[in-house]
Write a structure and sequence with these properties.
The complex is a heterodimer of chains A (203) and B (71). Chain A is an alpha+beta fold. The longest helix of chain A is centred in the last third of the chain and has 22 residues. Chain A contains 5 helices and 10 strands. With 71 residues, chain B is of the alpha+beta class. In chain B, 17% of the residues are buried. The chains are: A alpha+beta (203), B alpha+beta (71). At the A-B interface, α4 and α5 of A face α1, α2 and α3 of B.
Chain lengths: 203, 71
């Protein structure tokens, strides 16, 4: 009910900053929680009732971009059913982007990368944890936070080599016998995923 | 800068959306898992839903579907 309150209240009040141009979100400083403009206007119109909390006040502000490059990368690796890594501080992650395997170090430029089926490795000191990611996205923010989201991610030792070989053979055969565009695309996807799985197990 | 028309991936050229592509990839990966993890993953992703078509403002008989994730 209050979702449209901000826009409804803003309309009759002529705000001075009419033509507000927004800078890129990476350049914005971390804003304080709460929508101060909304609260001010509310207090003017309805001084007796406390202003309702807007979604903005529930959100934690984005940690600001530090002036010097931080030493660690904070990774949030999430799946639809579980949060694999939540704000884990690591040295480097290598993500399988569609443009190739990409290493992300602290201080990396802000990037959005689409992931292809492949291995993601998380490097922390001398340990490396590898996951096979089916597909997803990686958002790297300017303040050395990385959010990797995937639909399915498994540690490499959960993968069965023989099933992968069988799948690869099956899809290569389907690819040669496919007729419609859609069938060809599906078979191609099958071949891509299985070859990536194979490479992950043998590489 | 790249030209205005970026190269489309092959699955989009064939009329598939990203979500379909992503789900197919995820299913293929799930099918290649070793045993206890494979059954866990497949049971986790099962969907059950009941679908009813409406005509003249009244719902018709619902069809209950417990589809395996392939569909």
């Amino acid at each position: 009910m209050f979702r449209r309150a901000t826009s409804l209240l803003a309309r009759p009040i002529i705000s001075s900053a009419r033509a507000r141009t927004r800078p890129f979100s990476t350049d914005l400083p971390a804003t304080e929680a709460g929508d101060s403009n909304f609260i001010e206007n509310w207090k003017k119109l309805i001084p007796n009732i406390d202003p309702p909390k807007t979604p903005l006040s529930f959100m934690q502000p984005r940690p600001p971009t530090p002036s010097s490059i931080p030493t660690k990368l904070t990774v949030n690796f999430v799946l639809p059913y579980a949060s694999e890594l939540a704000s884990k501080e690591v040295d480097m992650i290598i993500i399988p982007a569609t443009t190739g395997h990409m290493g992300v170090l602290p201080g990396h430029v802000a990037t959005i990368a689409e992931l292809k089926p492949g291995v993601m490795s998380v490097h922390e000191g001398n340990d490396t944890t590898k996951y096979f990611v089916s597909s997803g996205f990686a958002f790297i923010h300017a303040n050395s936070f990385a959010d990797v989201i995937a639909v399915e991610a498994v540690p490499l030792d959960h993968i069965d080599q023989s099933l992968v070989q069988k799948g690869l053979a099956e899809f290569t055969q389907k690819l040669s016998s496919a007729s419609t565009d859609l069938e060809k695309a599906e078979a191609q996807i099958g071949v891509d995923v299985h070859s990536a799985l194979n490479a992950a197990l043998t590489g | 800068m790249a030209s205005q028309t970026a190269a489309v991936p092959f699955w989009r050229a064939a009329g598939m959306t990203y979500i379909t592509y992503s789900n197919i990839c995820a299913n293929l990966v799930r099918n290649c898992l070793k045993e206890p993890h494979k059954t866990e993953a497949l049971t986790r992703e099962k969907v059950h839903f009941s679908l009813s078509k409406w005509t003249d403002g009244k719902p018709q008989k619902p069809t209950l579907r417990s589809d395996t994730p392939e569909d």
